[in-house]
Structure formats: structure tokens, C-alpha cells
Amino acid sequence: MPNPLVFMSWWNEELATPVEFTPSGQGMGMRRQVKLHYLPAHGTFQLLAEDGPALTLSIEHPDGTPIGPQELYVGATLDVLGRPMTLRSASAKTISWIDSEAKRLLKRREALCAQLQKFRDVHKALEELGISQLYLNPQMAPDSQMTLPSGGKANLKRMHTEIDVLEKVLTRYRT
Q: CA-based angle 32:13:87, to the nearest 5?
């Protein structure tokens, strides 16, 4: 895993401007850009805004558990300082790590599915445990070819969850 994982985000804000400069009275739009660094050694984030000092902060789920590196991907939305922030792009190293990790996890998950298929229907077993459909399901692809989302868009947390569930189901049949 690269140190740090680097993501970029932006949003548009409307700035109040005097009426003489904007006859519509709607103001003027301004794009705000930030970088969000995840520091794996500390499990914290650094927020670097274009017009201020870097802030070190902890980003947590509503239940207080910290957000981990597997939950970070391009397209994820985090609650940062009370504001929803969508991770819109990432550094090349971060994208490379997410994409290679997704390939590794997909291979592992498919191997577990093949093992479980020897004992029972995989989809029925997963539905019993609350997973109605596999993430990146190759059976849903039109030509049965799986294409991973590229550009750091793979949801590693969801893949880890599916692998954990498959391993638990398989332990019942292995013992």
C-alpha cells in the first residue's frame, strides 16, 4: 500500500458578489479543490485545501469506527467535517494499488466460490447471509467476462466482506 493514499475532490461554491457585477443576482461560481491523504501508519487523514493549512483528522463511520484504507476508492463518499465529500480522482500510485488489490481479491473470491460450489449453490448460501448479489458478478456480464472497474473505482471493502462470508460458510463444510 502506498504511503500515503492520495485522493482529490472538488465542489463548486457560489460566492456572493455585488449586484452591479452580476445582473442575474445569482452570484459567481468558484471551484474548491482539496487533497485527502490517508496515512496508513497512523490511520488518520490529512486534508489539504488550496487556501489553508493542512488539517490532520480522523474520519469515522456514524457508529464511531474509523474508516480504513479498503473503504477508500474513486467514487466513495465520506463525511468530512460534517460535509459529504466524494473522492473524485486519485494519484497514480493509489490507483495502481487499488486496481491490483481488486484483481487479487477477485481471484481469491472466485476460488472460494468454486470451492463452495462443490457443496451447495453459492448464491443461495450468500443470500441466507444477507448478500443478495456478488459485487462484480461475472454471471451478470453479457459475455461472461469480468472486467474490473479501473482507475481506482473498485470497492475493496465489499470484496473483503464477501470473502469473509465465503470463508465462514466454507468452514462448515471443511470440518
A: 45
> What burial letters (b/e) apply to 27-61, b meaning 16+ CB within 10 Å?
eeeeeeebbbbbeeeeeebbbeeeeeeeeeeebee
Considering the entire predicted model, what is its pTM?
0.82
- What is the distance between the alpha carbons of residues 157 and 115, in angstroms, rounded to a whole number? 22
The predicted structure's pLDDT at residue 141: 44
Q: Which residues contact 156 (CB under 8 A, 6 or more apart)?
A: 69, 70, 71, 73, 98, 101, 102, 105
Rounded to an integer, what distance in angstroms lies between the CA atom of residue 99 and that of residue 78? 20
Annotated domain spans of the chain: 5-90, 92-174
Strand order in the sheet with 28-39: 55-57, 44-49, 28-39, 5-15, 89-90
Which pLDDT value is given to residue 140? Answer: 45
Q: Is 15 helix (H, G, I), strand (E, B) or coil?
A: strand
Pairing of strands 83-86, 44-49: unpaired
Amino acid sitting at position 172? R
CATH of domain 5-90: 2.30.29.170
Higher pLDDT, 127 or 90: 90
User: Smallest Cα–Cα separation from 98: which of 137, 156, 41, 145?
Assistant: 156
